[in-house]
Amino acid sequence: MKFHTIAVALLAAAALAVGGCSSDGSGSASRTEIKTLRIGTIGSGNTLSGPLGFANQREKLVPALADLGVENIEIFSFPNGPDLNQALVAGELDVANYGDTPALVAKGSGLQTRLLAVTAFDNNAGVVAKDPSITSLKDLQGKKIGVPSGSYIDRYLQGALQEEGVTAELIHLYPADQEAPLNSGEIDAAALPDVNPSASLHAFLAKGFHQVDSVYDDHPDLAGTSASVSSDEFLEANPDFGLAWQQLLVSSAKFAKNNWEDYLAYEIGQSNFSPDIVRGAAVADSIAEEAFPPAAVDLLTGTKQFLVDQGKIREDFDLESWFYVTDTSDTGEA
Predict the structure, then answer these.
(1) Is residue 303 exposed (0-12), middle (13-18) or buried (19+ Cβ within 10 Å)?
(2) What SS3 class is residue 140?
(3) 115 and 237 inside one domain
(4) Omega of the bond prior to 220 within 30 degrees of 0, cis?
(5) Are residues 92 and 47 in the same domain?
(6) CATH code at position 147
(7) Same-domain pairing of 175 and 54
(8) Cβ proximity of 294 and 212 under 8 Å
(9) Is 325 within the bounds of a domain?
(10) With CB atoms counted within 10 Å of each terminal CB, which end of the chain scores lower, N or C?
(11) Which of 99, 118, 119 is nearest to 50 (CA)?
(12) Is the domain of 118 the same as that of 131?
C-alpha cells in the first residue's frame, strides 16, 4: 500500500511551469498586484464548486476581493491533489482548494504553505464492489482495490485496511476510470469520494455496485477535510489577502447553509450526476462556518499523525503553526 511519490513530484515541479496556468502572463505568486487571482481546485471543467462556487455564480466573489485589486479570477481544475500540488509549488497558483491529505503531505515535504481555512469536514468516502461475495474489507485480503493515490480517499482506505488488519494491492485510478476495470474484474473493489461535485460513491451505488465499507458507516474517525491553502510567498506579498479570503469563505458558507435549496439547485446544475445523487451526497453540517472548526482540527490532527507514522510526511511540523490565524468575526454573508 503506497502513495504516489509525492515528495519527488513536488521537488521536480519546482523547476517546471505547469502548462495551462497563468494565461494572462501575470507571473509568479510573489507579485504584489493580484489583478487575476489564480485558483486551483479538484474536478474538471475549470469551475469552482461548493459555497465558494455558489458565491462566484452570484457574482459575489470578485467584488468581495476588489479592495485587494482583484479584477477577475482564473480557475484551474486538477484530477487529484498531488497534481494540484505540482502547480502550487511551481508558483502557478495563488490559492488551492483541495483535500487535507495532499495539503498535509505537501507541507511535510517542505512546501512553504499556510492553511487559510477548512472549507468542509466529515467528508465521506467508501468502497464498492461488484462481486456479491465481497461484503467487508476483510474479504479484500490480497485483492486489488482502485483508489486515487495521495487523496483523502487513499488516506481513509489505508487507515481502514490497517484497522481491519487487511493487506491489499492498491491501484492508482481516478474515480472516472474505475467503473470499467471493476466490471471486468481487473480490480476487485473501488475506493471513491462521496462529496459534491465528486459524488462517485452514490453514483456507483446507483449503478448496482454494493457498498463494502464507508467513512460514515464504519470509520468516522477517518473522515476527510477540505482545505484552502496558499503559499507563504503569495501571502507575504499580499498581506491583506489571507483575512479577506477567510471572510469570503465563511460568509459564502453561511449564505449557502441559510439558502440550502437554492444552493442545492446550484450544485445540481453544476453536476454531471442526477439530482438524487447530488442531494444524497450533500451534507449541510459538513460545511465549515469558521476557518478552523474544532471537529475539523481533530480530524486534521489524526490525519497528520497517520501520515507521519506511515512516512508520507517527511518532516513533521506543528499543525497549529500551519494555520493562518486572524479574526474572522463579523463576516456577514456573501
Answers:
(1) buried
(2) helix
(3) yes
(4) no
(5) yes
(6) 3.40.190.10
(7) no
(8) no
(9) no
(10) N
(11) 119
(12) no
Residue 173: C-alpha distances to residues 219, 249, 290, 307, 330 (Å): 22, 31, 33, 20, 43
Domain for residue 328, yes or no?
no
In the block, cell 481546485 appears at 41
Q: Are strands 36-42 and 95-99 parallel, antiparallel or unpaired?
A: parallel
- Say how far apart CA 37 and CA 27 lie, in whole Å: 11
CA distances to 66, 173, 296, 309 from 301, rounded to whole Å, are 35, 27, 9, 12
Domain assignment of residue 334, yes or no? no
Given this model, what pLDDT does residue 30 score? 77
More confident residue, 86 or 138: 138
Is 332 within the bounds of a domain?
no
Predicted model pTM: 0.87
Q: What percent of the chain has pLDDT over 90?
A: 81
Judge whether residue 73 has pLDDT over 80: yes
Directed axis angle between helix 260-270 and helix 50-57, to 10°?
Answer: 90
Residue 161 CB contacts under 8 Å (≥ 6 apart), including other chains: 1, 137, 140, 167, 168
Cα distances from 230 to residues 28, 77, 189, 235, in angstroms, run: 13, 16, 35, 7
Domain extent, residue 132, equals: 125-222
The size of the chain, in residues, is 334
